[in-house]
From TrEMBL:
<dbReference type="GO" id="GO:0051082">
    <property type="term" value="F:unfolded protein binding"/>
</dbReference>
<dbReference type="GO" id="GO:0042026">
    <property type="term" value="P:protein refolding"/>
</dbReference>
<keyword id="KW-0676">Redox-active center</keyword>
<feature type="disulfide bond" description="Redox-active">
    <location>
        <begin position="270"/>
        <end position="273"/>
    </location>
</feature>
<comment type="similarity">
    <text>Belongs to the HSP33 family.</text>
</comment>
<keyword id="KW-0143">Chaperone</keyword>
<keyword id="KW-1015">Disulfide bond</keyword>
<keyword id="KW-0862">Zinc</keyword>
<dbReference type="GO" id="GO:0005737">
    <property type="term" value="C:cytoplasm"/>
</dbReference>
<dbReference type="GO" id="GO:0044183">
    <property type="term" value="F:protein folding chaperone"/>
</dbReference>
<feature type="disulfide bond" description="Redox-active">
    <location>
        <begin position="237"/>
        <end position="239"/>
    </location>
</feature>
<dbReference type="Pfam" id="PF01430">
    <property type="entry name" value="HSP33"/>
</dbReference>
<dbReference type="InterPro" id="IPR016153">
    <property type="entry name" value="Heat_shock_Hsp33_N"/>
</dbReference>
<dbReference type="InterPro" id="IPR016154">
    <property type="entry name" value="Heat_shock_Hsp33_C"/>
</dbReference>
<keyword id="KW-0963">Cytoplasm</keyword>
<comment type="function">
    <text>Redox regulated molecular chaperone. Protects both thermally unfolding and oxidatively damaged proteins from irreversible aggregation. Plays an important role in the bacterial defense system toward oxidative stress.</text>
</comment>
<protein>
    <recommendedName>
        <fullName>33 kDa chaperonin</fullName>
    </recommendedName>
</protein>
Length: 293
């Protein structure tokens, strides 16, 4: 089954629910960064949340999430756009703290229970929205719930799950974001709270093979929601040789001259996908000549 995301309205169109299967995306990003199991869960939860948050945008809008916790895996950076594409980076992939007493991976120990999470939305036309919150849990689901309530004034519930098996293999990943809209009555809120209290952890639902639609039904009940859109999702890095070349063009002439004389070229590696780009002396000289014209 391929990854995808479902957008829906529920409870007489007073509640938005986003649900996502992100298994393949998390497998790819964990393989790229050679993450150990607890960091796989942390990075997987973050990129799942980021992809769903990106889907709330429009057109060419995009966002960046930066998780700067006190734990050894931080910072974690996620880029996502409105089209279901996302990429992620973790500064220290080789962290595996002792599990919780119930046997679950201790994501909070890897991320840190102090620090901040910031979200920068690039809305085009030089318009940016920035929201920042202190980390309240480090398990990330609770942190993004707090982010929506404080930075966007939207009462929400965020559930994120990554199931990691033997050999640090990603068995399943996914999540949901439920948001109250104007018009949600106290009765509806009580119904939702009861369902949230009764439902199994999202990691259990996805490990049982529940689809995004079935997760939405668990949250809303049968015949109590309507699907607005289904969107394919995938890991995608926007790096390119042209982008790196443009960055080199932005350097001072003296810096380029030193790279030519001392380094005989330039090499850079994308932190998101580990793609390496090499520029020879001739390449740098051509960039320098263009700058001097």
């Amino acid at each position: 089954m391929n990854d995808y995301l479902v957008k829906s309205l529920a409870y007489n169109d007073t509640v938005r629910i986003y649900a996502m299967r992100s298994t393949e995306m998390v497998r790819e990003v964990s393989a790229l960064h050679d993450t150990w199991r607890t960091v796989t869960a942390a990075l997987g939860r973050a990129i799942t949340a980021g992809t769903m948050m990106g889907s709330m945008l429009k057109g060419d809008e995009k966002l960046t999430i930066k998780i700067e916790g006190s734990g050894p895996a931080s910072p974690i950076i996620i880029d996502a756009n409105a089209k279901g594409k996302a990429r992620g980076y973790v500064s220290n992939p080789h962290v595996d703290p002792e599990r919780h007493s119930n046997g679950k991976l201790n994501v909070a120990a890897a991320v840190g229970q102090e620090g901040s999470i910031s979200v920068v939305k690039d809305l085009g036309m030089r318009d940016h929205f920035t929201g920042s919150i202190p980390i309240v849990s480090g398990e990330l689901g609770e942190d993004f719930t707090y982010y929506f309530a404080t930075s966007e004034q939207t009462p929400s519930s965020v559930g994120l799950g990554v199931v990691v098996g033997e050999g640090d293999k990603v068995l399943a990943a996914g999540g949901f974001i439920l948001q109250m809209m104007p018009g949600a009555t106290d009765e509806i809120i009580d119904q939702i709270e009861a369902r949230l209290n009764d439902m199994p952890p999202v990691s259990q639902l996805i490990s049982e093979g529940k689809t995004p639609e079935e997760i939405i039904e668990t949250l809303a009940g049968a015949d109590n929601y309507r699907i607005l859109e289904k969107m394919d999702t995938e890991f995608e890095c926007q790096c390119s040789r042209e982008r790196i070349q443009n960055a080199l063009f932005g350097l001072e002439e003296q810096d380029l001259k030193e790279m030519i004389a001392e380094d005989k070229g330039a090499e850079t590696t994308c932190q998101f996908c580990n793609q390496t780009y090499q520029f020879s002396e001739e390449d740098l000289e051509a960039i320098l000549t263009e700058k001097q014209q």
